[in-house]
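I am writing to request your help with a piece of structural work I have in hand. Here, with my thanks, is the record as I have it:
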Amino acid sequence: MAGKLAPINTDVLDWAVRESGLSYRELAESSKIPEERLHAILVDHDQPMTGEFKSLAKALARPTAFFFLPKPPRAHKSKTSFRYPPGRGGENSLHFVERTALRNALRWQKVLSWVRQETNSGGADLLRVPENLGPPQIAEHLRVWLHWQTDYQKKATSSSSVFRMLRDRVEGHGIAVMQLSLGSDSCRGFSLPHNDSPVIAVNSAYNPPARIFTLLHELTHLLRGDSALCGDPRNDEVERFCEGTAAIFLVPADDLSEYVAKWLRVARVDEVDQVRRVANYYKISLRAAAIRLRQVGLADSLLYEKVNRIGEFGGGGFNPNVERQTTPVIRVRELGTEIPRLLLVARESGAMSDTEVRRHLSVNGMQLAEIRERVSRPQVEA
């Protein structure tokens, strides 16, 4: 076969393939390497050609330098909380895109923790609540901690602005909130607890109301210090706890009862369109509205099951007529403000060079200056 051999560590390649969760057929399709040849590389340990190696590295979402390590890395056991979409409860394996997103989030978490230690910036100010509190009490603590009022949701121009406000307030306490494009078949979001640098990731494939709910759901996981993977909320006590807390935070019982009586003029809600009106009023997801209606006794579980089957995708929350999608806009939308803020702290303190910061963010000098301006702006207020 013509070309040069790539002198990679095939043990590291084997490890990366296992970690990816991709089947041989999926890896062959992604790398465009015939299955027979792929079998020779992965099973018979034929050394790949340079072109094949680069295709494999790209398909496995790993830097090329990774495959020259002297030995495979030790598996990292993270206390990760995944919020799966309906129908995926109880799965033990993650999709390739979820594994890649998890690695990305863990990498950022390590960077943030290192910066905090090197610059004496202090850790995240995570709310501490007694272990014996239930969802109503934790939701009330969260409202105080985030300086939140339900009127902010009602008066907001859109659910996108509600998500931005909540994200700003959560990041104001030092918790990084990322938005990752994981697709509609992947988890709604996940959280990574940490002593000083907790991270929340929200799947941007879901619409803004669903992202609001996921953000609060994962924030509750962090407060609890949960380490189990999120499963089916209908069968998992922890999931019901976190979803209940998020729903109570967004919709106080008295306020909801008043709205149903005054505007829906019914004793009980039994139609999906009525749930949609509640969701639109509070700028929340259909599932959040259905959960809250069920909690306060204004709807039954059958209505929730109907709502739970409705997708919550699309509606990215970005209006191209309002703001052009420049690289700085995209970076801040994906990474939030806490990650670039701490990188800039590292640069100003001398812990990182300007080049290192730009490399982490994949931007040039002018783009970094715009990011600095964006993360320095006052937080969004209601």
Residues 341 and 375 are 6 Å apart (CA to CA).
